[in-house]
Structures are given as C-alpha cells and as structure tokens.
Amino acid sequence: MINRSKLLILSGIMTVVFTISAFTDAPLKVQSDGPKNLKVLPKNISHEDLETVMKGFNTALGVKCNYCHAAKPNGEKGLDFASDSNPHKNIAREMMKMTKKINTKYFKHEHEGVIQNITCETCHNGNKEPKTVSIQP
After folding, report:
1. Which of 12, 18, 41, 135 is the most exposed place for a label (fewest CB within 10 A)?
2. For residues 50 and 111, what is the distance between their CA atoms, to the nearest angstrom?
3. Do the domain assignments include residue 135?
4. Are 75 and 43 in contact (CB under 8 A)?
5. What's the CA gap between 124 and 6, in Å, rounded?
6. SS3 content of the chain, % helix, strand, coil (to 5)
7. How far apart are alpha carbons 61 and 73 in whole angstroms?
C-alpha cells in the first residue's frame, strides 16, 4: 500500500515543478556551474529543487541515477548528467510532459483541500515499468 502522505508530498513537489516550468517564459541566466541540457525542467531550477525532483524519480521508479544518466566517457568515474546518450532520459522527459498535460487538462480543481494530480508514482508505484491492468469489456 502506498503511504498516502508520501504520495501527497511527491504530488506537491511535482506540481510545484510543473507549475514553475509552465509559467517560465524566458529562463534566467544559468550559472556556469549550474545544470546543463535541461529541456523540460526550468533552466533556472535551484540545485536543491533539482535534487528533490531527481530523488522523487528515484522513489517513484525504484531506480538509481544511472538508470537515466549515462556514464562519463573515457572511463572516468561518475555520471555525465548533461548527456542524452541514455534513452531512458528522453523517456523521462516525455513522461514529464505527459503528466503535465494530463494534470493541466483534468486536474485543475481542488478536492477536499488537496490538489488532485498524477505523478510518476501514480502508475509506477516504485517500479521501473508501470503496472498495467487488463480491463475486460
């Protein structure tokens, strides 16, 4: 059973991230040591907020950073966070766009003081692949 408070916290974090990205017309200047190659998240996201989002993915999919991020080239230790060579990274971007679109279209209202929306956790439930259910006609 999913811990309701964890799901609400993760939903709130993702809502904040998606709301910020939806209302950011022009990104602020990114520091030279800041994140590179952000295509869905706001370019001016703080390190702390970016880390929170990434930890949310870790929890929602039960994966570590190397699931989406490629290893550094030439045998260097660590991950090349800016690289797009790992296809899971672009899948994650598309999933973020999809959830943002669904939340914007279907979950604009508040119900019992809680903003209803979907997150990665909604379908993945801590698994790399979302669980699917066959519905019989």
Report:
1. 135
2. 28
3. no
4. no
5. 14
6. 45, 5, 50
7. 26
**pLDDT greater at residue 91 or residue 9:** 91
Are 108 and 18 in contact by the 8 Å Cβ rule? The answer is no
Q: Does residue 12 form part of some domain?
A: yes
Q: At what angle do helices 4-22 and 87-106 cross, to 10 degrees?
A: 90
Decide which of 24 and 133 is more confident.
133
What distances in angstroms separate CA 15 from CA 8, 19, 31, 66, one per listed residue?
10, 6, 25, 25
How confident is the model over 46-103, as pLDDT tens digits? 999 999 999 999 999 999 999 999 999 988 999 999 999 999 999 999 999 999 998 8
**Residue 109: pLDDT over 90:** no
Cα–Cα dist 105/99, whole Å: 10
Q: How many domains does the chain have?
A: 1
Residue 129 lies in a domain: no
> Encoding tokens for residue 52?
């929170």
In one-letter notation, the amino acid at residue 107 is F
Instruction: Please name which of 98, 5, 20, 87 lies closest in space to residue 53, comparing C-alpha atoms.
Output: 20
Query: How far, in Å, CA of 63 to CA of 118, rounded?
Result: 19
The pTM score is 0.67
